[in-house]
Amino acid sequence: MEQLGLLDEIKRLSKPFGKITVLRDDMSVVGTITGNSKHMDHQQRYGHYGQCITRPDLYNILLSKIPKERIHLGKRFVNSHNINDPATGVCTQVQVRCSDGSFYAADVLVGADGASSAVRQSLFRWIKEESGNGTGHGHGQKPLPKQDLEEQQYRQVALVGVSNPLNLKRYPDLGETFSQFKVILSRHSPYMNWFMPVLGNRYCWLVTRTLEKPIRILSDNSKESEWGPDATDEMSKAIRHLKGPDEGGQGTMGDLIDATDRQLISKVMLEERVFKTWYGGRTVLLGDERSVYRKGRKRVDAGCSGAGIPTSRQHASINHLELYSSTFNNNINIITSTTRSTTVQ
Ligand SMILES: Cc1cc2nc3c(=O)[nH]c(=O)nc-3n(C[C@H](O)[C@H](O)[C@H](O)COP(=O)(O)OP(=O)(O)OC[C@H]3O[C@@H](n4cnc5c(N)ncnc54)[C@H](O)[C@@H]3O)c2cc1C
């Protein structure tokens, strides 16, 4: 963020990370992880604190830096083809097809379409074809490593939200300069609750539920019944009784859900996975579609997934941007399936 010149604006709309306190459901403390103590100060150690910001605020900052005519909203990527020069066999161009029938040709395609990335699926198809699909009749492309061929599964679902401004007397954590996360582990249920204070006396909140059995991810498993508004309401009801972030532990999740606009609550699935392959031909992958450590499904934009963003130089995605920035120059086009330029969908 510092290298992109975005850090000052992000700091203005966020809180530095202070600590995580892990509690049992009787509110006794299991332990703490600190980011600004005498013994462990992230700024001294890494150059910056992590900054806690809501996803809509982060999106608005990013969007304000990109010329509007470069963003084509409501475009769904369907597939891409890396085009080889017939004389040399070298890949020289990539063509993209969108669901509205439009085509784009480019020198480089950067896929940043999240955990269930269609760009990654297209790239992997191309690599399989070019490597001969195990038939020995390929074009010199190395086959995909075994790790990338394993089926995707998720083991946790979560409900995420960003509350409206809350009363500081009831939730004094929200008045602190540093964001002090609270995590409540339930001993006798599959739930875990996260509360992350952000600017404007609000909480980003997250409740995860561990499933008894992992569920296979299919390219079409976005059934409205599992991830649509009804599923969100159903999970909201199921977790109302869980402990809220109140001092003393009297309040419930229900209080926080009632203090959160309905369109700012989303149900998501979580998956931890790192793909080895992140480029091929003229396509490169960026963000979650490369390292799926958490997988969102449907309207995650509303939620708290931007709660902590690394500002230090170690962040891999930033390095990728640097790598390709000279190629992009001013001719970058961004296509996104998002239909509005505002961030709350
Ligand atoms: C519950 C949860 C909590 C998290 N908490 C944190 C946290 O505290 N801190 C943190 O740093 N990270 C957190 N993460 C992870 C973080 O949200 C992701 O790493 C990050 O959002 C990944 O960004 P991305 O751009 O790769 O993908 P996404 O944010 O998923 O964006 C993908 C975009 O591509 C668009 N798209 C999808 N398919 C197509 C298509 N076919 N054509 C065109 N556009 C398409 C989507 O509409 C979307 O706008 C969390 C994630 C979850 C799920």
UniProtKB/TrEMBL annotation:
Q: Which residues form the signal peptide?
A: none
Gene3D superfamilies in alphabetical order: FAD/NAD(P)-binding domain
Name the chain's protein: FAD-binding domain-containing protein
Q: Which organism is it from?
A: Linnemannia gamsii
